[in-house]
């Protein structure tokens, strides 16, 4: 049994209303997913984080390296892909292409062995994970916080107890909106902020001082991901934990964050930083250095399931009788690809998400939905019918 076919699908979901944050405005979601099929017809699904058409080109570039390989030997395949791209793609979109293929191979491997990915990773230390709602983006340039009250009521009614908001519109506005959201959510809610690297070190330190009194769980990407030493300096200027890593790649990049003592919380995006194979190695680095790890997730429900399996396998160090809840990012912005692409659906119960126990990632793709969102419909018609 070998890998026989690799198919890419670019999926696009036009939003009913655009939203913005410190860097960009979004009017659609566009994601590349990949299907890897073996010579005996079994298949696995993966997705990459980044510009969909670029990721698709990367996957096609890697196709000849992966076809003919044994899907049970995921580390061997990963290394061959890494060596193929080493001279020009140790970071960036081609690494996300490797990630998408690696995830699909893990899903395939689990289905072949009739085991969930969490078991393949070494076992689930927990069967439930607490999602935090990523939301509170800005909808109106004249009144950016217009929908905050409606969102807060919705998320609280759904059972969320942890939340992440966007900052980065300027220190004065940020302080105003953090204060507002803390009042809306109440004192018991866990509240994090994310500036998407909008600030200089001086600005990030000033904002941190001004919002410390609102009990902030972490400040995510306060400054540019290039400034490892400045991250370390910022940590010394605030009591708010500093988080980052969604723009970092492979164990080697995360080792730089760790060596420079840049962050309190590592946030690899598994769909970009090297897939599950490399995430396992990044997790080992975090564990060896006593640093928390909470993956960044942004995409379809495939990516959410990847994170569920991975987080279930993270060791709790130090261990104790009553373990804290481990967190998973659960984006709440409009996204038909997240809600409709895969089955069974994600269900939050009592404020928690269960780790799937079905083989592989525990999901499959609804190919009718795939056709509905796909940009490359003609290719799909010939490849999956």
**Spatial gap, N to C terminus:** 22 Å
The number of domains:
2
**What is the tally of helical segments?**
14
Radius of gyration: 20 Å
CATH architecture of the largest domain: Alpha-Beta Barrel
Structural class: alpha/beta
The main pleated sheet reads as: 10 strands, mixed
Strand content: 15-25%
Residue-averaged pLDDT: 96
Beta-strand segment tally? 15
CATH superfamily of the largest domain: Enolase-like C-terminal domain
H/E element order: EEEHHHHEHEHEHEHEHEHEHEHEEEEHH
Which of globular, elongated, flat, extended, rod-shaped describes the shape?
Answer: globular
* CATH level-1 class of the largest domain: Alpha Beta
Helix content: 40-55%
Short note summarizing the structure:
By secondary structure, the protein is α/β, with parallel strands linked by helices. It has helices spanning 52-66, 74-85, 93-113, 117-121, 148-158, 171-185, 201-211, 228-235, 250-259, 275-288, 301-312, 336-340, 367-373, 377-384; strands at 3-20, 25-38, 43-48, 128-134, 162-166, 190-194, 216-220, 242-244, 265-266, 292-293, 327-331, 342-343, 348-349, 352-354, 364-365.
């Amino acid at each position: 049994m070998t890998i026989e076919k690799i198919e890419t699908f670019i999926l696009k979901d036009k939003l009913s209303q655009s939203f913005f944050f410190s860097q960009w405005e979004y009017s659609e979601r566009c994601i590349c997913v990949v299907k890897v099929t073996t010579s005996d017809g079994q298949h696995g699904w993966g997705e990459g984080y980044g510009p969909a058409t670029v990721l698709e080109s990367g996957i096609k570039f890697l196709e000849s390296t992966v076809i003919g390989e044994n899907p049970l030997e995921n580390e061997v395949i990963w290394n061959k892909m890494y060596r193929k791209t080493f001279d020009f793609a140790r970071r960036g979109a081609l690494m996300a292409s490797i990630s998408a293929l690696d995830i699909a191979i893990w899903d395939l491997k689990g289905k072949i062995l009739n085991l969930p990915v969490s078991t393949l990773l070494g076992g689930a230390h927990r069967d439930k994970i607490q999602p935090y709602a990523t939301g509170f983006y800005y909808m109106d340039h004249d009144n950016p916080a217009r929908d905050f009250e409606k969102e807060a009521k919705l998320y609280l009614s759904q059972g969320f107890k942890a939340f992440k908001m966007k900052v980065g519109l300027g220190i004065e506005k940020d302080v105003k909106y953090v204060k507002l959201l803390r009042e809306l959510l109440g004192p018991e809610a866990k509240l994090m902020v994310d500036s998407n690297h909008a600030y200089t070190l001086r600005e990030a330190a000033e904002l941190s001082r001004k919002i410390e009194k609102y009990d902030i769980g972490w400040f995510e990407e306060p400054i540019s991901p290039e400034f490892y030493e400045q991250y370390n300096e910022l940590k010394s200027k605030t009591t708010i934990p500093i988080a980052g890593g969604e723009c970092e790649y492979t164990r080697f990049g995360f080792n730089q964050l760790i060596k420079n003592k840049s962050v309190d919380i590592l946030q690899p995006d598994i769909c970009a930083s090297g897939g599950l194979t490399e995430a396992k190695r990044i997790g080992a680095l975090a564990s060896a250095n006593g640093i928390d790890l909470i993956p960044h997730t942004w995409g379809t429900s495939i990516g959410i399931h990847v994170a569920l399996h991975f987080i279930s396998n993270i060791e709790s160090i130090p261990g104790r009788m009553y373990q804290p809840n481990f967190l998973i990012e659960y984006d709440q912005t409009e996204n038909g690809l997240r809600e409709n692409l895969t089955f069974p659906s994600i269900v939050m119960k009592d404020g928690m998400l269960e780790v799937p126990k079905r083989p592989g990632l525990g999901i499959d793709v609804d190919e009718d939905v795939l056709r509905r969102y796909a940009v490359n419909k003609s290719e799909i018609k010939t490849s999956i019918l």
